[in-house]
């Protein structure tokens, strides 16, 4: 893994997403328009000189993180792109280049026509870049949305009210209040089904193994993990349990793939003896006279 190149492995994720899109497995079933959500996640701490050597930067000092882009409009919510964040910047600084990369990879696929992101990423530089490329037909803000969130504590019955504000390039005719509420909730699928799956199911934060601490291996393992999650996400949404017709869990789908991949080798391998002391030999029979 340390010998692999990040720039050559990432297109494998892109080809997987495009292939599933052509098969019709990533249709915008939850939204009328294909929608992706952008979110950031820390993936580990590297020596700055090592990170600069991998990403081709001038040496200063910081830690490594990544920006993931998750398709949130289909039943499956795979990661379609990711970008390492160097310590000299943050998510805001990486947004213009991220838009360039998304445009270069997916502009001709019609996979999505809407991007949702945190307010901190809507910088003047990022929006200017969007206008220059005609990306997603963005021209200017056309609508300001306010979504009120009411939380009630079941123990004390105390209610807490909060408000979230959104700026959209879509007109009220194109984006109704009900659709805006669904998009607001769908945005957090990038956390619930990408970052949470990597942490809780793939044990990303716990598995600090040799290749996941290597300056190049860390990035390669991250891409491979997103590829695995994308495969499992599509298979999970297309599967139903025979007895209940429910969607199988992540663990059940992962175990199924593991058996499919390793089953033939397990059947062909010779049986190993059980661990422990060797069995005692049977008592010798007396030789007949």
In short:
This protein has nine helices and six strands. With 289 residues, it is α+β, with helices and mostly antiparallel strands.
List the helices and strands and how they pair.
Blueprint: H1 6-22, E1 35-44, H2 48-55, E2 64-71, E3 79-85, H3 91-106, E4 114-116, H4 124-133, E5 143-152, E6 159-168, H5 177-187, H6 189-201, H7 210-213, H8 217-238, H9 250-268
Parallel strand pairs: 1-4
Antiparallel strand pairs: 1-2, 2-3, 5-6
Q: In angstroms, what separates the terminal alpha carbons?
A: 70 Å
How much is the average pLDDT?
79
Largest sheet: 4 strands, mixed
* Total DSSP helices: 9
For the biggest β-sheet, the strand order reads 3-2-1-4
Q: Decide which structural class fits the backbone.
A: alpha+beta
Q: Beta-sheet strand percentage?
A: 15-25%
Number of strands: 6
The portion of residues assigned to helices is 40-55%
Q: How do the SSEs run, as a string of H and E? A: HEHEEHEHEEHHHHH
């Amino acid at each position: 893994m340390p010998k692999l190149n990040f720039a050559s492995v990432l297109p494998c994720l892109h080809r997987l997403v495009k292939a599933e899109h052509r098969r019709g497995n990533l249709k915008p079933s939850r939204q009328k328009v294909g929608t992706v959500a952008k979110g950031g996640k820390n993936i580990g701490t590297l020596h700055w000189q090592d990170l600069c050597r991998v990403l081709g930067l001038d040496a200063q000092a910081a830690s490594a993180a990544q920006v993931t882009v998750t398709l949130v409009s289909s039943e499956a919510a795979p990661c379609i792109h990711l970008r390492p964040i160097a310590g000299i910047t943050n998510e805001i600084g990486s947004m213009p280049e991220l838009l360039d990369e998304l445009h270069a990879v997916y502009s001709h696929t019609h996979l999505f026509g809407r991007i949702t992101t945190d307010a901190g990423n809507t910088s003047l530089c990022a929006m200017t870049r969007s206008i220059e490329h005609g990306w997603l037909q963005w021209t200017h803000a056309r609508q300001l949305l306010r979504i009120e969130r009411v939380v009630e504590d079941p123990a004390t019955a105390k209610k807490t009210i909060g408000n979230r504000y959104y700026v959209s390039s879509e007109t009220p005719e194109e984006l109704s209040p009900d659709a805006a509420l669904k998009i607001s909730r769908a945005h957090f699928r990038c956390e619930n089904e990408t970052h949470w799956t990597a942490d809780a199911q793939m044990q990303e934060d716990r598995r600090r193994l040799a290749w996941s601490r290597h300056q190049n291996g860390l990035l390669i393992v991250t891409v491979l993990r997103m590829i695995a999650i994308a495969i499992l996400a599509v298979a999970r949404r297309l599967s139903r349990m025979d007895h209940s017709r429910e969607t199988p869990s992540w663990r059940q789908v992962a175990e199924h793939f593991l058996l499919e991949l390793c089953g033939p080798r397990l059947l062909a391998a010779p049986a190993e003896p059980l661990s422990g002391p060797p069995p005692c030999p049977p008592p010798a029979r007396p030789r007949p006279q």
